[in-house]
Amino acid sequence: MKRLALVLAIAVVAMFASLGTADAAGTWGNAQDINPYATFGGSGSSQGALVICPQADSCVVLGEYFTGGVSQGYKIPLVNGVWGAATSIPGLNALNQGNFVNFDTYGCSPQSTCVAVGVYDDGPGSNGFLYETGGNPAIAIPGLAALNVGHNVSIESVSCSSAGNCSIAGSYTNGSSNGMPFTADEVGGVWQNAQPVAGTSGGGQLHAVSCWADGECVGVGYTYISSVPTAFTVRRTGGTWASATQIPGVATIGAYSDATVLSCSAGPVCIALGTTNINAQKQSYSTMLANGSWSNAVLVPGVAALDTSGYTKVFLLSCWGPTSCLAIGQWHSASASGSWVSELSNGVWGTAIDMPGVAAITNGFDSAKSMSCASDGTCAIIGNYQVGLPWQAYVVMRNADGTFTDASPVPGLTAMNVGGYSDPSDIYCMIGFCAAVGWYEPTQSLSSTFFVEMTYTPTPTPTPTTEPTTPSGDPVVPTFTG
């Protein structure tokens, strides 16, 4: 899915799982069709891309609508459970000379200011845009067009440490048609020009960025060293990006490596995952940054047993504490493919398992698409699965007590999905509430946006008297970007 990066580096504002627990299962409402196209004068197609919720039952949905081979961006507000009118994205239509728009991901500050990013067609090819949801018009990412002489960009991640202080990660194409990693930073509300990542002259991609304080960030991706893809990390300190360095230990367990997902908290404590090749088969690894150093990479236990074809991927990571996270990837066998999930608890990865309950509803093919964890450890996962020929959407819950609620079809969506293909794209959770968006086919020739939400009642528990620590015993500062 084109938006897999969306939960990987989104700044999900969180504290610690010890602050509360939740009921074992929430209540999902029925999916709603919120196709915005009629607002723009017709009955065409649309796709929901992102959902951002500053508070329960108050969200904004961002996506694309299509007419005559042209796509444009839209937004629809939900305020206290009441939908407002769909509108176009201010400034985006003027940028979109080539008539193609795609929202990719977003990041939010602790003050609930959010930046959505994506790509548009500027005529010669694709370029990157950003849209601050507080009301400013969408703008081209400053300086990116000057770097992007090959006219092809990928916007992978955005993270915000505070209102007006954010960083974007992605790649552009140089004159030799090579992908090149870049960062673009907002400082005090002013966006600076995009800059290449130093130390990656061989090309590559910057997949994820996570910021825990203003001017303090980490990014991960891959670059070519002696023509070999190699996982790297890059650190921003005091507002200045250093040169990229190899992630320690990855080369000792495999070659042709990549780092794809990242989550950092104050300290910093960072969790990163990716893939590396062992005997010509891809395996999933994890590493942690703490006390200023990256640990040697280790394989995520259990993934190899699921992924018998040796072509695993890691594409989702969401955390509710510095060392408490869920990671999700893809497994493949000779006759099926599905999603694995592994939990990081106190800095130790548990054995990866097949996505709970999905095997009971699919004929062998499924894919997780988005995940979000609230600060109490309640996580929602949304994806799609094949049953017969149609593809339907499912939800899975990781409850605050550590149990899983098995996959079940998104309520009401199967009946709506007459055309036979539904594709969830994004989910957002806070304590007591989750919301998800995506698209489905009301007919085989049209797509339409759906929205679904879930509520649960959290049960507070006393705050522990002991101060949470990192695995090394150092105190953890309770500021977390997810």
What does this 3D model show about the protein?
Strands 2, 3, 37, 38 and 39 form a five-stranded antiparallel β-sheet that branches. Strands 4, 5, 6, 7 and 8 form a five-stranded antiparallel β-sheet that branches. Strands 13, 14, 15, 16 and 17 form a five-stranded antiparallel β-sheet that branches. By secondary structure, the chain is mostly beta strands. It contains five helices and 40 strands. The relative contact order is 0.16. The longest helix is centred in the first third of the chain and has 4 residues, at 92-95. A hairpin with a 2-residue loop joins strand 18 (204-213) and strand 19 (216-225). The radius of gyration is 21 Å and the shape is globular. It has a single domain, classed as 7 Propeller (Methylamine Dehydrogenase, Chain H), CATH 2.130.10.
SSE order and pairing:
Elements: E1 20-22, E2 27-28, E3 32-33, E4 45-55, E5 58-67, E6 70-79, E7 82-83, E8 87-88, H1 92-95, E9 101-108, E10 114-121, E11 126-132, E12 139-140, H2 144-147, E13 154-162, E14 165-173, E15 179-187, E16 190-191, E17 195-196, E18 204-213, E19 216-225, E20 228-237, E21 240-241, E22 245-246, H3 250-253, E23 255-265, E24 269-278, E25 281-290, E26 293-294, E27 298-299, H4 303-306, E28 313-321, E29 324-332, E30 337-345, E31 348-349, E32 353-354, E33 366-373, E34 379-386, E35 391-398, E36 404-409, H5 413-416, E37 422-430, E38 433-443, E39 446-455, E40 458-460
Antiparallel strand pairs: 1-40, 2-39, 3-39, 4-5, 5-6, 6-7, 6-8, 9-10, 10-11, 11-12, 13-14, 14-15, 15-16, 15-17, 18-19, 19-20, 20-21, 20-22, 23-24, 24-25, 25-26, 25-27, 28-29, 29-30, 30-31, 30-32, 33-34, 34-35, 35-36, 37-38, 38-39
